[in-house]
Amino acid sequence: MKNFQGKGQRPTAPCKRCGAVALLCRSHAINDAFFKGIFRENSGKAHHLAIGAEKPVTTSESGWDYLLCEACEAHLNNNLDRWGHRWFKDAQDKIARDGWRGKFEIDPTRMARYVASVMWRASVSKAGAYEGFITNPTLRGQLKAVMDDQESPLEDFSVAINLLYDSEGQFSASALRRIILSPISWIKRGGQIDRFVISMTVEGFLVVASYPKFPWRNRLSSGFLNAQKSYIFMRPSDIRKTAPFPDLLEDVMRQLAG
Ligand SMILES: [Zn+2]
């Protein structure tokens, strides 16, 4: 996998978020803490699925690029990344402790902003794990707007979160947590409007975002964030039947075997 982790010095250039010319940080799209946890449990390897240009790779690198000034980096790390990471870990801990219940407390506004912030960073990152997956400038602009909208990020953006499982039992819950699907986008045609759909995985959960948001009829189904509600109902989502996984599993299985 191509990676951007060269040697060299941190460049002084416009921050991708605020535009100020500053010494840029090594910014991760997917919080490095996810990778560190996985590396500890899996002797330094995560199954990082980079779709499109390359096949899935087993990697010990999380992928970063010089994106943000120090203030923006700290803002996203402190206000969104740490919180988001904690939410997904807590949800997994709750499932391990209590079994599957489906209902989870959540701050829907903050979760929408967290999801958009990961997807936006992936969209502007040149790290090999993310390059080329979200290229549309309208979508990039929308992700940035959602990330920075403290009041109503779900106004025209929908997010659904569901737990991944394997109906064939080859991937255990902990194996699924080690599979990281980089944010990828496609255009879903149909109905009166085309919409962008972006999928990624976090800690064994599938996160699917859409802009413009899915119509209300869709949003009544499981896993959708509702700006008016402080909880979501999630459901198990079969990795064998959920795009884009069926196409990728063969490669992943081969790597797990090797
Ligand atoms: Zn900045």
Features of the shown structure:
5-stranded mixed beta sheet, alpha+beta, 35% helix, globular, 3-stranded mixed beta sheet, binds zinc ion, 7 helices, 258 residues
Overall mean confidence score, pLDDT: 83
Listed once per kind, the bound small molecules are: zinc ion
- The low-confidence parts are 1-5, 51-56
Gross morphology is globular
What distance separates the N and C termini? 18 Å
Query: What fraction, in percent, of the residue positions are helical?
Result: 25-40%
Q: DSSP helix count?
A: 7
What's the order of the H and E elements?
A: EEEHEEEHEHHEHEEEEHEEH
CA radius of gyration is 18 Å
Number of strands: 14
Main sheet strand line-up: 10-11-12-8-14
Our count of domains comes out at 1
Strand content: 15-25%
Describe this structure in words.
The chain is of the alpha+beta class and 258 residues long. The chain has one domain (43-61, 79-257). It contains seven helices and 14 strands. The protein has helices at residues 32-41, 70-98, 108-124, 137-148, 173-177, 216-219, 245-257, and strands at 12-14, 21-23, 26-28, 46-49, 57-59, 64-66, 103-105, 158-165, 179-181, 184-188, 195-202, 205-211, 231-233, 236-238. The strands form five sheets. Strands 10-11-12-8-14 form a five-stranded mixed β-sheet. The protein has a three-stranded mixed β-sheet with strand order 5-4-9. A two-stranded antiparallel sheet has the order 1-2. Strand 11 (195-202) and strand 12 (205-211) form a beta hairpin. Helix 2 crosses helix 3. The longest helix is centred in the first third of the chain and has 29 residues, at 70-98. Residues 1-5 and 51-56 have low confidence and may be disordered. Bound molecules: zinc ion. Zinc ion is lined by residues 15, 17-18, 20, 68-69, 71-72.
